[in-house]
Amino acid sequence: MTTAPASRTRQRLRVRTARATGEDLLSRLPHPDHALAWVRDGSGLVGWGEAARFEASGPTRFADADRWWRDFTSTLDVQDDVGQPGSGPVAFVSMAFADEPGHSVLVVPEVVLGTRDGRSWTTTIGQPSPADIAPVRRPSTVRYADGRLSVTDYRGAVAAAVARMRDGDLDKVVLAHDLLAVADVPIDHRFVLEGLARRYPDCWVYAVDGLLGATPELLLRRTGELVDSRVLAGTTWPHDGMSDEELEAALMSSPKNLEEHDYAIRSLADTLKPFCTTMSVEGPSVLRLPNVSHLSSDVIGTLSGSPSLLRLGEALHPTAAVGGTPRADAIRLIEELEGLDRGRYAGPVGWIDGNGDGELGIALRCAQVEGSTARLYAGCGIVAESDPDSEVCEAHAKMRPMRDALEGR
Ligand SMILES: C=C(O[C@H]1C=CC=C(C(=O)O)[C@@H]1O)C(=O)O
């Protein structure tokens, strides 16, 4: 089902992009909530205000969003003095993981600030009023409670999935659970985003419609005819007094983790290949983050036609980094064993511009924030050799970025 776009989307809007002086993007967000962001190591986009919005759900959500964005951008009066990916009209995108339930959203801000390759710009869409920057607020306390799937039930779900895989029902499934965090004051999105950006410069820090996070995984970036992706699957985390080097050597030689990674790479590369004239895969190598290390591969391709990023995202989602193998069987098992509404966790998140270019990450290491409450999500790839206790520890390690950011650590 698709909901109607906001009434202002039918009006002819002025879009003006001009060069600007480079400044720290996240520190320019004026409001504590409704932040829009896609920033990695100081580069990217932030936005605020809402010039237009589109919501969709169901199996046609990507196609509906793509159509709406084409229609919307075709009506605009655009003057773009920068002419880079991300200048001109931009929508921040966050798609639901599942066909049902869940809603997907595209938000077109009134103001966008961008920085790329050392160049910065400002885009206005419509006629935004000037906004003063409100002081950033930090919570004094954050308390935690079980989410819809407690840690104990998560462990049970993983054990049940392992049994199914040992019976040969499927090869891999990614199971997640949630955790509720409650702060003593309404959560300031900027406080969380700044904490994530400071500690995770190798990740894409994002915010769309209250979904905040720092993902290390890029589903797909489209820049003209070039596409690239960073596929992650197979994880280790600091434990047992082992050094980072020992842990990473063990990860690179672990048949269980290499198998998990192989399913994820194959799901991405096999689906992307028909859209490309050339495609190469490099990896795996180890991506080291402060909380976990992942097996990581890069896929680079040249498109044969001009499919938009959203239509490519539709084909690729969900990869076996968040779904499983075979995909349809894994989705059914996720519904059966998780019993969790993932919302937009593990769905594509990022931005698109008026040329169909943009970046879509996978919404990992995130929380859905509403007022003083945040629902954190983390999941793990499960194969027949998985150990439920280890997967519980891994999910815990994956929640650390959001916990630390909420608590200001
Ligand atoms: C599903 C998540 O991570 C995925 C991405 C990287 C490594 C993963 C793993 O090793 O299980 C997961 O496939 C998550 O962080 O919630």
From TrEMBL:
It catalyses: chorismate = isochorismate. It comes from the Bacteria. Pfam families: Chorismate_bind. Residues 152-398 form the Chorismate-utilising enzyme C-terminal domain. It is an enzyme of class 5 (isomerase). One of its GO terms (molecular function) is isochorismate synthase activity. Keywords: Isomerase. Its EC number is 5.4.4.2. SUPFAM superfamilies: ADC synthase. Belongs to the isochorismate synthase family. NCBIfam families: isochor_syn (TIGR00543). This is isochorismate synthase. It comes from Umezawaea endophytica.
